[in-house]
Amino acid sequence: MKKLRQFLLLFFFLCIVVLLVVLIYHIRIERLPFHLAFYSACKDLLYVIPVNGAISVLWSLVFKSPIDIQFPVRDSTLNFKIVMFVFIMLFSTFMFQEWFIPKLYDFVKLTEVLKEKNLKGVRIRDDSGADFKMSEFNRLVYMPVRRNIAFSTGNSYVYFEKMYDGNGAYYVEGFRFIAYTKGEEIDYIISSSYAKIVGYLLYAVNPIYYQYSNGQFSTAKKISGIKKIVLMYNPSGIYSLADEATGSIVSLIDVALNSDYVLNSRVSFYRVGNVVFNRIAYYLIIIFMMILSSAFGMAFRNRRLLQGDYIQTAAFYLLSLFMVVLYYDTLIAFLNFLYGFFI
Amino acid sequence: MVRMLGEVFLSYLTTCWKYIGSFIKTMIFFIFLFSFYLFYTLISFRYTMSGNLFLEAFKNYVFFLLCSVPFAVILNSSLFLSKFKDNKRYLFKIIPLIALVNSMFFYLFLLARVNFVPLPPFYQYYYYPDVKNGYINSIGDYKIALPYGRKSGILFFGKAYFFNSISVGEDRIYINTYKKIEDNSLAPFNSSYTVSRKAQVLQIQDSGVTHKIFNLYIEYILKIERMLNAHIPLSRGAICIIYLILISMGITGLVGGASVFFYDNQTLSLSWSTLFVISALLFTFLPIYLSTISSLKIGVRNDFLREILPSFVVSLCALLIGYALIELKYILAMKRTSVPIKENERFSS
What we know:
Chain A has 343 residues and is of the alpha+beta class. Chain A is 54% helix and 20% strand.
């Protein structure tokens, strides 16, 4: 597994170098606080990963060490190792982009809010029980939040002004439920200022129940206690796809796991479609670049050890870097052109 | 005797033919290399122009490729001449021939005065999403729920509002609300909202390095075209052709020397990249080369010599550098292997 180790070492080394450089740039020159700088450095790293992968394969294939000459590797073995490397790289990139960065986004946002209020972060306890006290809502400040969430369940529309992720349970501030009849007239409205979601059940605290008859408002009734409402979708999906308007943090994992929410909730997920196209294009770009650079590296490997070819080596490093970047940019331009013209 | 001469002539002719073939291959390589420019112009044409966009963009791209002929000539001759590195005597015979072909390419490049669009900048594109009936349309920070078959619906924006009229304009949506659902009450609330329909297309960001390098390259092409047009008397046919032949002789000699010096079969990718970098460097030195020639012109009074002599001198210098590089390569190779290299291996039989 010598070659695979070489690929991985070079790849992670380049990634860490780029991460550090970008981090120092954000901290020293743009004067961002550390958590923000780290977040934007992680996002910048994503643009560099395809180039890094292609370059690490190319460089470690082209140059030969004395060990390679002593114990030559068969081409089939090398092919297998390249495929292994591509899979490891894709998997790590996928987890980094789709799992780590959304988590980091929540953390950064929460840290900013807490900093504004001069509060320290608290580890949220797991309170995923159906019996809850009002005092649980005092801890909302310490939870990551998404705003302005609306979706439909069948004939009714649900609106959350704010939705908090409370480690197992979700908390809602400003809950509205507007139900329509089959004849598309308003049937009733439920409104409450606080609610808690456990599993697929929503518990609205002290809601007001507005009854309509024939599309006209008739009575308002205050219910003291708790009203149970069944949600049709997984609340984690609702929470994680809430950022649909900006589309900055939508992960493919959430889209895939909550496809019923995406398809049935009647929310026009324009942004999500765009993001999904971009993400898939990104992974395709990685695979395509890896195939081309590994093919080039396999075909034009050095057949001898280097003996003072300093100029040639420097030129190769320079040109391969430039060519890989050019290739990456050309693919991106091609995909943007495809999206702009046809999709 | 005559037959032998004919064979020699034929071998030169086939070499020339092969050179032209490799030039075509280089141009095909360039089509892929510069396709970045094509896609950028296509995207920008879509948002700025009307008519047959594809035809216009491809025409523009062909002009761009025609303008990069000087770089193609330098790169191709360096790649082609490196094949003859084991055959010194043949190399000296073939360089003038290839220089002649190169001068032809330069002449064609000068004759074809073409214009192309400069590389458009990367800018953010926008679109106007539809407001679909039966859906919750998220437009900006607003969410507009429109139940089927109704003109009225619900607007979600911090709170939930009922609206009774909505009109979708070109780039704006006008909404009049009549009721607001609050935590404890359902109150009448007459207000009007204007929502901007404009939404960003989320494009994949590129690194930006290529864009800068392409801008530099285009600037350079235009500069070289301007300089060649300024320095070369196109109106005086014969003198112009002699001038071009002399210039391309110098360039080809220099390129050939450098390519032979750096080429090695054993490290193919390294030597190819070296050749590429060297030809790029020589391409950037082309304006200096031309301006050296024209600055030498000043002292000469004779009209014919005025055009010919400076280019002859400078080209001779370049040729001599190329020759020195080739000789140096052979001396170094002899030193390394301490076995004299056989000449005329390929064409001896």
